[in-house]
Amino acid sequence: MNAVTSSQPKEITLRGVTLGVLITLVFTAAQVYLGLKVGLTFATSIPAAVISMALLSAFKNATIQENNIVQTLASAAGTLASVIFVLPGLLMTGWWTDVPFWPTFGACATGGVLGVMYTVPLRRALVSASDLPYPEGVAAAEVLKVGTSSRSGAAEGKAGLMSVIWGSIASVLFAAAAAAKLMAGEVAGYFRVGGSATGIGAASSLALIGAGHLMGITVGIAMLVGLVIAWGVLVPLLTSMNPMADAPASEHALRIWGTQVRMIGAGAIGAAAIVTLAGLAKPVIGGLRSALETARRAKTQGQVLERTEQDLSIRTVGLVTLVSLLPAGWLLADFLQGTVLESLSVPLVAVGIGYVLLAGVCAAAVCGYMAGLIGSSNSPVSGIAILTILGAALSVGVVGRQVTGPEAAPALVAFALFVTTVVLAVAVIGNDNLQDLKTGQLVDATPWKQQVALLIGVVAGSAVVPPVLALLNRAYGFAGAPNAHAISAQPLAAPQATLISTLAKGVIGGNLRWDLVLWGAALGLTLVVINFVVKKASKDRYSLPPLGVGLAIYLPSAVTVPVVVGALAGWAFERAASKQTWGEPAKRLAVLIMSGFIVGESLFNVALAGLIVSTGKGEPLALPIELGEVTTMIIAVVLGVVAVGGLYRWAARTALRIST
């Protein structure tokens, strides 16, 4: 390390690292479940910061920088869990029957370490010398400052912890009521209009409502537009073109949506992602050049850096990167052992390593820039995953084209998915690292210490993903998996993994419905144009993110509707709170309640999976009560309104008490 300044605040401590690891373990388990159910994850930095401040306040010598290290370490949970967007594809394609620990851990950990290394040279260009807003990084810094600067801040920190707790309790009770069959797990209705069929469904999930609140009104409106396109236009149109007179309206609508509309949605997501990423090429390349020039000047001119400008040295970054390629190569070679592709291990591993290096650098840079522009929660990781699997499938397919036989295509698909898992781990950690470094910049943290903390978080999170994924696979299974031996009759949808594996099989096997994908791509490009017009006409006040629209077309309405409801409810609450003197703390407490919704429900369902496996019963909590479908739907709606409305009111009253 370079010379340091005289100020040396307490940052990396045993208690801070221990607390950060514990939070990481809990949040990673929650994120894995949420991602498999919904295809979305949430940023964990702010709830981690609040929990840290509340617990470390018992120590008089705790510092804001120490709290920052805790949130940095724990934020790995909010990002690394995104690898489950790809990994279940190995189960869905039948390549895996269970989740092996070491290959899964190795892919997550290796990719995560590379993600940290790749973004270190970008910090000065994209954080220190950049005007990127970093909305979530700035918000996390504000929470840390408020919580440690005054007595009222300390009071808000304790109230924030209670917000997470109350939100978690409410979502656990709500999910338990659904598991006990006291209320409906989904509120839905389907109908026919002439020869067409359509309808709508909404899962009884406070976690999804919380996710919608955290995403915000812009993404919520985009997903509402996607709902209208999917279920108000495409499903009625395509069901009329593909009649199923003898089938119930629900079966007809859901089958057409699942086989045709989803592929249109996939095409829309892909096209929107490509355009979005193409627009980032210039600023990302400029950021890389600036970072390299800064490093060169520091070396040749012997500049002494302030503590708050010290990164891991370029030598360390290069060495760790090279060392990380060794386990990456071993993992890829081991993956091919005993398969039809074993004779091509050398060229396939070489292609895999090269792809991880090149695609990983690009993905980390793009995701890091997008985190600065719109926040890590809204960064188009889905688009990155789509482009990555397409590139991996094409690269692997070229090398493996000489292998023939019925086992060749599935093996190539599986290898492409595994390579993509590593690249996606690189991307999501890059997405998180720069945001954390922005938070650190605002609280006078030491960058290299944050980078070390994130490496610890990567390892901790990587150790949690395999056992949780294996437990959920054993209890619920995944939709479409040929070797599923799950106990529950309700498999997890894993929508992102379904899309990724479908694209891989389509590219390598040549059986993808390219007509539907191309129609979706045309729709995606149209949405890009509409978004451009909206932003131009409103002078960037409003936007209609095309990725959000495409995602709502692709995801089940049962998932999308609660997210939209949460976004609209959050917008209404924040608009009302903005008119009050206590509005800002009320907004922060509401964010923490919604985070609690996600954590509580997700952990409950992970625990329920354990109960399913241990008892061998698909619905171990179900009570022998028959309340009727309509009655249970009404109960679900009423309880949901009471829970959300009651906790919003609690946040307002608590904020008023803190502010006076």
Automatic annotation (TrEMBL):
Sequence intervals crossing the membrane: 12-34, 40-59, 71-95, 101-120, 159-184, 190-209, 221-241, 261-281, 312-333, 353-374, 381-399, 411-431, 452-472, 484-504, 516-534, 554-573, 589-613, 633-651
Main localization is membrane
* Stored InterPro entries: Oligopep_transpt, OPT, YSL-like
Per the database entry, which stretches of residues form a coiled coil? none
Q: What is one term from the GO cellular component aspect held by the record?
A: membrane
Q: Which domain of life is it from?
A: Bacteria
* Protein localization: Membrane
* Topology with respect to the bilayer: Multi-pass membrane protein
For this UniProt record, the keywords arranged alphabetically read as follows: Membrane, Transmembrane, Transmembrane helix, Transport
Please give the NCBIfam families that the UniProt record associates with this protein: OPT family oligopeptide transporter (TIGR00733), OPT_sfam (TIGR00728)
Name of this chain's protein = Oligopeptide transporter, OPT family
Q: Which organism is it from?
A: Corallococcus llansteffanensis
User: Taxonomic lineage of this organism?
Assistant: Bacteria, Pseudomonadati, Myxococcota, Myxococcia, Myxococcales
